[in-house]
Recover the amino acids of this structure.
């Protein structure tokens, strides 16, 4: 009896998988324990082992294609067994009748011939929260040869700009998105196949099926027609002229123009097909204009600019909105004496090749305090509260498009210099958009520090599903009372935002008392 195998969930955050490589072909014998395929998850590429034996009768996902968890991956059974009913049940968009494949679920689909060796490459899901991607740069052009492992393009996700590697080889026959354009995950990105193959009909049928709820590319045999439908996608033009015509410019030219305040529609491009490149921005001279003294000229003008929301900005808006309006926030404000911390840091930094910041002290102190107060280190889920007995502190870092939160894992176990070096490395790579999704995943508590900007006090929105976030202000020199005398002191204000579903007010206050002990007497962190 034939057995249906679905896309497995190979990690706790995996919602979709990509078939990197099939290690068995249709018609091959499969033994229990054989490796069927290599599946790329959100975290790694992993071998997928068969728990069944028989003959591989059908594969539902081609190499390089992505599909949600529990989608039809393969069917194993006895040689010659009729599996048409299982295919019909597993893929609602594709029904096989003799030599034709038709779609009953999507009337707008078109039947086209899929030439042998042609692969449709779709927009990959490069992070666990990614729903849409933007093509930052194509590293291959139509007509170029593509080898397995070549970098096809740089894709901007909600978290970083990442290289997208090809799992296939052939000639790049078609690109579905231009640089700067965005589309939903699983939308058509490119088509790869034998040189000279006409794929216009395949691309056109993707473009026509705008009302289809999802995309399926099924291939029973290379000689059979397939149903191709298109994922709904929203294409965002990053730069257009006032007439609505797209302006082609390299990513570097766009950045230089933005930094210099130059409108791209005023620049003539000298690159291929009029593309604006670096030297065009460097050589740009605004047109001079004479002044007619006999005509009244207004002294001011109204001017606006529409800036397309980046993927990062969209996700920040969505996630912070969900946190703010779902978690009942409350705030606890404290002010710490920083005299001992200042002296401690000065003495610590006198050691050769050692340099720590006040933020490193706060991160370490928070981690030690969290070990004593696991309720503050918890996470809320609909049916349970998860108490984390490990401490992974997320450190908020401002970047051009918004905010990222890389994670210092097992923070309480690391020394101050180790924490300092890790945070500095994260800060540099965050501004270069070189952080990986894994480095921004798994925090149990978050710290946001605006003290370096002179901000004395502020509140933050909790980084869900965490239960709390600490907002750190600047160290301020001010008059303080010590032993009944008015003296000059240095203090710092901190605000703890808590989720009242998991952290009661008294619990939050006790955590801050413990934190106060470590920060006001930092030598105790070394004991």
């Amino acid at each position: 009896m034939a057995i249906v195998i679905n896309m497995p969930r190979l990690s706790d955050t995996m919602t979709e998988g990509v078939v990197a490589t099939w290690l068995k072909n249709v018609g091959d014998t499969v033994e229990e324990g054989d490796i069927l395929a290599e599946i790329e998850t959100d975290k790694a590429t992993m071998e997928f082992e068969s728990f069944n034996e028989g003959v591989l009768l059908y594969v539902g996902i081609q190499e390089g294609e992505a599909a949600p968890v529990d989608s039809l991956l393969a069917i194993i059974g006895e040689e010659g067994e009729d599996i048409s009913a299982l295919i019909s049940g597993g893929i609602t968009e594709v029904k096989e009748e003799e030599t034709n494949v038709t779609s009953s679920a999507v009337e707008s689909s078109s039947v086209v011939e899929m030439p042998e060796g042609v692969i449709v490459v779709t927009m990959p899901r490069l992070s666990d929260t990614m729903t849409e991607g933007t093509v930052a740069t194509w590293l291959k052009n139509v007509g170029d040869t593509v080898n397995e492992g070549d970098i096809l393009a740089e894709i901007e996700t909600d978290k970083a700009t990442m290289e997208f590697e090809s799992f296939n080889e052939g000639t790049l026959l078609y690109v579905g998105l231009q640089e700067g354009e965005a589309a939903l995950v699983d939308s058509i990105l490119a088509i790869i196949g034998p040189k000279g193959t006409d794929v216009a009909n395949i691309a056109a049928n993707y473009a026509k099926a705008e009302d289809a709820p999802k995309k399926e590319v099924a291939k029973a045999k290379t000689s059979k027609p397939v149903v191709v439908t298109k994922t709904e996608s929203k294409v965002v033009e990053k730069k257009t002229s006032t007439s609505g015509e797209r302006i082609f410019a390299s990513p570097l030219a766009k950045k230089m123009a933005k930094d210099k305040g130059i409108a791209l529609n005023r620049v003539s491009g000298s690159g291929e097909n009029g593309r604006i490149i670096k030297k065009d921005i460097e050589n740009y001279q605004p047109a001079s204009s004479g002044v007619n003294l006999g005509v009244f000229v207004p002294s001011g003008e109204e001017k606006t600019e529409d800036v397309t929301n980046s993927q990062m900005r969209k996700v920040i808006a969505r996630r912070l909105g969900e946190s703010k309006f779902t978690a009942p926030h409350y705030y606890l404000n404290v002010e710490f004496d920083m005299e001992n911390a200042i002296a401690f840091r000065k003495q610590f930094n006198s050691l050769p090749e050692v340099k720590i910041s006040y933020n490193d002290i706060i991160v370490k102190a928070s981690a030690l305090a969290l070990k004593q107060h696991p309720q503050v280190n918890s996470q809320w889920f609909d049916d349970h509260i998860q108490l984390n007995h490990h401490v992974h502190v997320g450190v908020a870092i401002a970047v051009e498009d918004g905010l990222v939160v890389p994670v210092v894992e097992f923070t309480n176990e690391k020394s101050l210099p180790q924490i300092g070096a890790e945070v500095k490395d994260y800060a540099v790579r965050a501004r270069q958009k070189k952080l990986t999704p894994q480095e921004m995943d798994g925090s149990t508590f978050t710290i946001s520090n605006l003290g370096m900007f002179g901000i004395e006090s502020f509140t933050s929105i909790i980084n869900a599903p965490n239960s709390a976030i600490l907002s750190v202000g600047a160290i301020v020199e001010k008059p303080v009372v010590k032993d009944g005398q008015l003296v000059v002191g240095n203090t710092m204000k901190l605000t703890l935002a808590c989720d009242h579903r998991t952290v009661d007010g008294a619990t939050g206050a006790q955590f801050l008392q413990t934190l106060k002990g470590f920060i006001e007497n930092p030598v105790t962190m070394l004991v």
